[in-house]
Amino acid sequence: RVKERGRGHYSFYQPQMNSGLLSRMKLEHAMRQALEHGRMAVYFQPQVHIGSNKIMGAEALLRWTDPEFGVVSPAVFIPMAEESGYIVTLGAWVLEESIREAVHWSTQGLPLQVSVNVSALEFRQTDFVERLKSLLVKHGLPAHLLELELTESILLQDAQEMAARVRAIADLGVGLVIDDFGTGYSSLGYLKKLPIAKIKIDQSFVRGLPHDAGDRAIVTAIISLGQALGMEVVAEGVETCAQRDCLRDMHCHFFQGFLCAPGLPAEAFSERMRSQGVAHDDDWGAGPDAT
Ligand code: C2E
Ligand code: MG
Ligand code: MG
Ligand code: MG
Q1: Whole-model pTM?
Q2: How far, in Å, from the CA of 179 to the mean position of ligand 3?
Q3: Whose alpha carbon is nearest atom 33 of ligand 1?
Q4: CA-to-CA distance for 208 and 265, rounded, in angstroms?
Q5: pLDDT tens digits along 202-234
Q6: Rounded CA gap, 52 and 230, in Å?
Q7: CA distance 177 to 136
Q8: Nearest protein CA to atom 3 of ligand 1, as residue
Q9: Cα of 118 to ligand 2 centre, how many Å?
Q10: pLDDT tens per residue, range 83-125
């Protein structure tokens, strides 16, 4: 309801909204502080080759633990950072941390790929490709060890310019990945025109496997589309052996999910990789129904 506040000042009296706005501003401020004070960390979630059960790379996932707000989910702070533009600063930091870590793996004899999420606003920066190139040079990372995850919507606006950018990145040797495939406003047309290396099946389609007929149909279709176009297919959010086995039967190439591991701190991920060398394929994730 409208409440009078002194002479000629009217405002909607909505305490929830005000406190919502206030806590949002506090959260936004805390987010900037968090990066400056080292409270942000990049975690790494293994990407597993389904055929061999071997970890081939990792997706970089940003984590924030705040003294006041506790663990803040990326689902909360990434959209907030996208709205305020702070994602450009945040994303640049994640990219450099990820490149640094991939170099670290390489020097340990682990040539793993690192896959970094890139938001629309970051990708739209006119100097994005230049900065990417200089980071690779600065840290000496072979371009093929880096992948960038984009969502379909990034490619739709200013399609010509974005397509040119995608090609420039592919020319560097960096892999391009379509994230959350099938959940956006896809036109599919871009798939045949652009040098896309991988598509990631969104976890909303993986969840119902192996029983849900609709999910099975969609996942089968995405995998054959990817294969026909010469792209590799990654399934996200794999939590059970039954889901993994189903995906293996469908000839999906890679999976990510809690079945193998959640995002891990860099040190824990490296530790896991060092032990993979001597581990048997069935040391993890192999339940009674695994073959
Ligand atoms: P995404 O890129 O699609 O990442 C996958 C999300 O699924 C991650 O959530 C991951 O922790 C979660 N996940 C992985 N395996 C499983 C599983 O088996 N079961 C379930 N239920 N979930 C699983 P997270 O880390 O909370 O990130 C959410 C989203 O935030 C990401 O979705 C991505 O869009 C965004 N994000 C995270 N880090 C960054 C970043 O550094 N930059 C940008 N631009 N976005 C990021
Ligand atoms: Mg992703
Ligand atoms: Mg995804
Ligand atoms: Mg997602």
Answers
A1: 0.90
A2: 5
A3: 117
A4: 29
A5: 999 999 999 999 999 999 999 999 999 999 999
A6: 20
A7: 18
A8: 180
A9: 8
A10: 999 999 999 999 999 999 999 999 999 999 999 999 999 999 9
Name residue, tokens 């409270």: 39
How many A from CA of 150 to the centre of ligand 2?
8
Burial 107-142 (b: 16+ CB within 10 A, else e): eeebebbbbbbbbbbbbeeeebbeebbebbeeeebe
Q: Is the Cα torsion angle 129, 132, 134, 137 positive or negative in sign?
A: negative
Which residues are near ligand 1 (CB < 6 Å)?
45, 60-62, 73-75, 78, 91, 94, 117-119, 149, 179-180, 203, 236-239, 256-258, 262-263
The two counts, helices (H) then strands (E), for the chain are 12, 12
* Predicted interface score ipTM higher than 0.85: yes
